Amino acid sequence: MKQSENTTKLFEALNPYPWLQPLKESNMSYVKFENTLEDLRDCYDTLQDSSEIADLSESERKYAKKLIELCKDIVELEIDFDKPAVDYSEVIERAKEHLGRNIAKYASDKYKTIDQIMSTLFTLPIFDGTERMPDEEYDKIYDMIKKEFPEKDADSLHPHK
User: Is 49 inside any structural domain?
Assistant: First the structure.
């Protein structure tokens, strides 16, 4: 019997409130795949051993079959891990449209540097999800602003220029 099964049985034996169930551990989203990989390897090892399969409860057999089907579905997925999650060309186009609609605002003395304009742009909803924007995409926006407002100072804070 594994430790988690022992813990569950101990909890059930000592629990004075049958309606109270132990909480299932959550899987932190930032390490979801890392944590799941180890669990999946454990399942794989179990499935390779016919004696361990024979010891599985009916419920565990049912879920093992579901897990196998899910793994087959995962294998069929066509995932491009190199493709950005955000369509930056659309974001850049929308930023250009925003600048065009707000030329007077950004031309004012309130915005003395390109960096100030960029800081304001990046607070807009069109930039949601772009926290990891590649440098070359960031540079396109910077260059677009610099072209639109050549009188603005190029800010020394810009890391790519």
Answer: yes
Dump pLDDT digits (tens) for 93-135: 888 899 889 888 888 888 888 888 888 888 888 787 777 778 8
Indicate the Cα dihedral angle 31, 34, 38, 43, nearest 10°: 90
pLDDT at 73 over 60: yes
Distance, C-alpha 103 to centroid of its chain: 34
Structure tokens at 25: 């551990």
Q: Which domain holds residue 123?
A: 88-148
Give Cα 39 to chain centroid, integer Å.
21
Together in a domain, 53 and 114: no
In this structure, the answer to whether residues 22 and 63 fall within a common structural domain is yes
End-to-end Cα distance, the chain: 61
Q: What is the pLDDT of residues 3-22, one digit of tens each?
A: 556 666 665 666 666 666 55
Residue 34's pLDDT is what? 86
Looking up tokens 């100030």 gives 116
CA atoms of 16 and 6, how far apart (whole Å): 17
Q: Is residue 159 part of a domain?
A: no
* 145, 152 contact by CB (below 8 A): yes
